[in-house]
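Most newcomers find our protein records easier to grasp once they have seen one. Nothing more is needed to start thinking about how sequence determines fold. Here is such a record, shown just as it appears in the course material:
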Amino acid sequence: MVRSAIVKDRVHLVDASLYIFRAWHSIPNDFTDVDGHPVNAVHGFTRFLLDLLEREQPSHAAIAFDESLTSSFRNAIYPQYKANRALPPAELERQFAYCREIAAALGLTVLTDTRFEADDLIGSAIEALSGLDCGAVIVSADKDFGQLVGERVEQWDFARGQRWDAQGVKQRLGVRPDQVADYLALTGDAIDNIPGVPGIGAKTAAILLAHFDTLEALIERADEVAFLRMRGSAAAAMRLREHAALARLSRRLTVIARDAPVPTSLEAYRRGALDDGVTGRLFDRLRLGPMTRARVRALAG
């Protein structure tokens, strides 16, 4: 891939939930804290963070957490938003709290808010830092983040070891980064219960945006869709006319907010020093083993 523009510093912005859920589903719940509560997700997330810190040695990093599963501003726009998702069980909620403690203990900035999701916190951090001499690396595989990728912003699927820039977004989705929110508004998102336009799939959405550029232009010129040399063009034109309001609503849900309350100075994202006392007490409570403790000591230098 073509690397982002050369900058003095890079801020690594991690979508925590993705890696916590992966650990929760992939690691047996044999690991428990001193009170006997499962901490398998915490163990997996801690390993991930240590892998990231050892591999990249970032000077600046922030970990964004979701605490707005039912209180996001998107729920006010569309009450059914994420209504198909079951809330995390109490034992996982407890582990999320531990993961926030782990991130902070490792000297990483923690971003969290009850109205804004992790995507919004990351988008807002990028917006806040955009005028500074720094770049950003979004650590997540989520396609929604494609809308944030740009000259100084790249995305990194840590598990697969794949990085991509704006050109990579186009190769993956068939649209430019500035079209990703429109693309998702057309296709919808079953995971987040975003309706989209019924019958408009990924390939059709990419073709339509290549021709009309924006969702709004597409809706305003929906009658022209029937004349495109595209399979199912007449049906697509009809669906766009019938579901224009749904498409506009979906876009309000798919666009990542950039005005969430986050630190605005580069220094606020600088990795802090590790406190042996804090990490020791926390690791004792979580019953983290000697190998993990040795890795942390090595990071502390």
Notes: Residues 9-172+257-300 form a domain with the Rossmann fold fold (CATH 3.40.50.1010). Strands lie at 9-15, 60-64, 109-111, 134-139, 153-157, 162-164.
